[in-house]
Design a protein that fits this description.
By secondary structure, the chain is of the alpha+beta class. 41% of the residues lie in helices and 17% in strands. Helix 5 packs antiparallel against helix 6 and helix 6 packs across helix 9. The strands form four sheets. Strands 2-6-7-1-5 form a five-stranded antiparallel sheet. The chain folds into two domains: 166 residues, no CATH class; 159 residues, no CATH class. The two termini are 39 Å apart.
């Protein structure tokens, strides 16, 4: 399995000059290829692929004003075209939006394949550079690791990082009988069905005062001045610290959940749609729910765990985990409630975690899919792969027909 190992390194002045030139050429080739493909589609109504852009790159290198493209390794330039091809493939498959132009202020990156670098004696040598990179080996590479490609990245704060992609063997964790349902929140980032709560550092909210001051200082500097450049680096460093705190907390939470539990049930949230709520958009972005879901997906796959993803319309918060009664409404301000049927007292998030776990076990056991289905239809989980009209109805269609858009029942 391929796994990337990221380290910080400190280039010499000569190396930094070459790397900055390489990153700049990669950005230029990517942007010119994107503009070429976009113009070809709108002007000539034709789709341009990797082969056409690769041939175009050969022509660009022969132009007098672009002779500097020959001063850097050709491999990162070709890789930029491959990355653009992947971006368009994701766009046409509706997995991502239309590719954007790269900007200099956001740093940049360059990918080197086997033919453009050497990994010898625990040191990395890149093409057109005689000295090895001064890497800070914060963790050891796996024994006999042989990187297939490396990516040099310049962060907006001016720091340099290198990622080594290696083919490694990951040993699955020992099996356990523990199972957990996880409900994601804002006040507490993750709440489990066992009652455990993981704190949300809210790094962006805590840094707002400092960011406001730094951005005000940046706005007062003259365009193109050295002082403005230094002020911009301070803003970027503050944003980088916020992101590092968030990412560190996410990795700790997901690693602990995967290490301790065999089955993990989570809800598939529509984060993009939830960000349209301007009152909660910043808090949701700061929490990083989508990243937690992504990490759980690949970590459960790595370490031999089972991940059950529940449909976003399942009423995990409104449903009593004791008797199954669903209350009509559950505003966000209500954090604890009593079931009107059985009288059980519930913590909102812990109750949601219990419901997610119960439904997740059902999904894993009988292969059913938890999807919106009218109570009039008799209830029950829909069979996996079912083509039932109830299964494919949209939420608006169920509303028009008088059906409950969030009525669920699970297999007994």
């Amino acid at each position: 399995m391929e796994k990337a190992f990221r380290y910080r390194f400190y280039p010499t002045p000569e190396q930094e000059t070459l790397l900055r030139k390489t990153v700049g050429c990669v950005r230029l080739v990517y942007n010119k290829a994107l503009a070429f493909r976009t113009e070809a589609f709108y002007d000539q109504n034709t789709r341009v692929g990797y082969n056409e852009t690769s041939a175009k790159l050969t022509g660009w290198k022969q132009l007098k004003e672009l002779q500097f493209l020959n001063e850097v390794s050709s491999v990162p330039l070709q890789q930029a075209l491959r990355h653009l091809q992947t971006a368009f493939a994701n766009f046409f498959e509706k997995r991502a939006s239309y590719p954007n132009f790269k900007k200099k202020l956001r740093g940049g990156s360059a990918t080197f394949t086997k033919s453009a670098f050497k990994f010898k004696g625990g040191q990395v040598f890149i093409a057109k550079c005689t000295e090895f990179l001064d890497i800070r080996w914060s963790r050891q590479l796996p024994k006999n690791a042989d990187p297939s490609s490396i990516t040099i990245k310049l962060a907006p704060s001016g720091k340099w990082f290198v990622s080594l992609l290696c083919d490694v063997k990951i040993i699955p964790n020992p099996k356990t009988d523990k199972q957990v349902g996880v409900d994601l929140g804002i006040s507490a980032l993750a709440i489990t069905s066992n009652g455990d709560k993981f704190n949300n550092p809210k790094s962006l909210k805590k840094a707002q005062k400092k960011l406001r001051r730094l951005n005000k200082a940046l706005a007062r500097k003259h365009q193109g001045s050295n002082n403005r450049y230094k002020a911009r680096l301070k803003v970027a460093a503050c944003h980088e610290k916020v992101a590092n705190i968030r990412q560190d907390n996410q990795h700790k939470i997901t690693s602990q959940l995967v290490r301790e539990n065999q089955v993990i049930a989570i809800e598939s949230l529509n984060v993009k749609g939830m960000l349209k709520n301007h009152k909660l958009a910043q808090a949701i972005s700061d929490a990083g729910w989508g990243e937690i879901e992504r990490q759980l997906k690949y970590k459960t796959d790595w370490y031999g765990r089972d991940l059950a993803q529940i449909d976003r319309w399942f009423p995990s918060s409104k449903r009593c985990s004791n008797c199954g009664h669903i209350v009509p409404k559950m505003p966000l301000k209500i954090r604890e409630w009593d079931c009107p049927e059985c009288g059980a007292h519930h913590d909102r998030d812990e109750n949601a975690g219990k419901n997610l776990l119960a439904v997740g076990l059902t999904v894993l056991a009988c292969g059913a899919t938890v999807r919106p289905k009218s109570v009039k239809g008799g209830g029950g989980c829909l069979e996996a792969g079912s083509n039932s009209s109830d299964a494919v109805k949209t939420r608006k269609q169920r509303k028009r027909s008088g059906e409950s858009p969030t009525s669920f029942t699970c297999c007994p």
